[in-house]
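Appendix B: a complete holo record

For completeness, this appendix reproduces one full record from the ligand-bound portion of the collection. The bound molecule is NAP. The inputs are the chain sequence and the ligand SMILES; the output is the full three-dimensional arrangement of the complex, encoded as C-alpha cells. No fields have been trimmed.
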Amino acid sequence: MRPLADQVVIVTGASSGIGQASARRLARGGARLVINARRAEPLAALARELDPSGARVRAIPGDITDAAVRQQIVDEARGHFGRIDGLVNNAGYGTRGPVELVPVDLIRRNFETNVFALIALTQLVAPHMRERGTGRIVNIGSIAGRIARPLSSIYDSTKHALEAITDGLRGELAPFGIEVVLIRPGFILSGFLDAANEASGPVIANSGVYAPYFEGFRHDYRRLHRIAGHPDDIARLVEKALTARHPAPRYSAPAHAKLLLFLRWLLPARVFDRAVRLRKR
Ligand SMILES: NC(=O)c1ccc[n+]([C@@H]2O[C@H](COP(=O)([O-])OP(=O)(O)OC[C@H]3O[C@@H](n4cnc5c(N)ncnc54)[C@H](OP(=O)(O)O)[C@@H]3O)[C@@H](O)[C@H]2O)c1
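The structure of the chain with NAP bound, as generated:
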C-alpha cells in the first residue's frame, strides 16, 4: 500500500465527470492536487470546495493541447508542492460521425487532446519521476480502446492509440520505479455525451445518407443509460492505481465494461460486427 495522504497528484479534465470525481476522492484521501480543465469557473469552484485555503488544491485553467498550459501545470506542482507523485491523464472527449464525412481537422483535434497532449504532458512529468525513482501515471482509456464501433471510430481510434502508448510507457518506465496504469471505463454518466454532441454537431447536422443510422446509434446509446456507471466507479479505480503496492496494468469498470471486453476477446469478428452494426431509426 502506498498511502494517498500528501501525495501530489495532477488531474487533467477535472471540471466534470470522472476527473471531478477523482479529484474529490483523492482530496478526501489527503492528496494534494493540481487540477486542470478549460472551463475556469467550475474548476475554481471545485478547488474552493475541496480546499478553501488554496494551499492543497491548485487550479490551472487552460487547454491541455497548449504547451504553455502543460508547462504551467507541471511548474505549479513542482513549485508549490515540490514534487509530483501521480499524473492522472483524464482530459478527453469523443467525436462522432462516419469516417467518410468527418473533416480531418476535427479528427486531428480529437487526437491532439486525447493522445498528443497526454503524451506531451507525460514527457514533462516522466523525467522528474525518473530522477526521484518513483511515480504513478494513470491513463484514462476506455473500452473503446479495444472495441471500435461504426460512427464512433474516430474517438475509438484515439483510445486504441492510448492502449499502445500506455503499454509501451509501462515497460519503458518500469526500470525507473514508475508504474503506468490504464483504466478502461465502460459507459459512465458524465458530461461526455453533451461534449461529444457539441464536438460532432456540424457532422451530425450534415450526415446525409447516414442520418437514419445516427438516429439508431443515438437510440442504442439512450438504452445504455440503464446500465451506465457513475464517475465515482472510475475514481475508485484511480485511487487504487495510485495506492496499490503493485497496481494491475489495467482496470475496468463497471461490470458491463468487463463483460464487453470479454465478449470482444471471445467472439469471432464477424459475430461481434453483427452485434454493433448500424441500425436505422
Ligand atoms: N463517460 C464515459 O462513458 C467514458 C467512457 C470511457 C472513457 N471515458 C473517458 O473518460 C475521460 C473523462 O470523460 P468524462 O466521461 O468524465 O467526460 P466529461 O464529463 O465530458 O469530462 C471531460 C473532462 O475533460 C476536460 N477536457 C476536455 N477537453 C479538454 C482540453 N482540451 N483541455 C483540458 N481539459 C479538457 C473537460 O473540461 P473542459 O470542457 O472544462 O475543458 C472535462 O473536465 C475522457 O478521457 C473520456 O474519453 C469516458
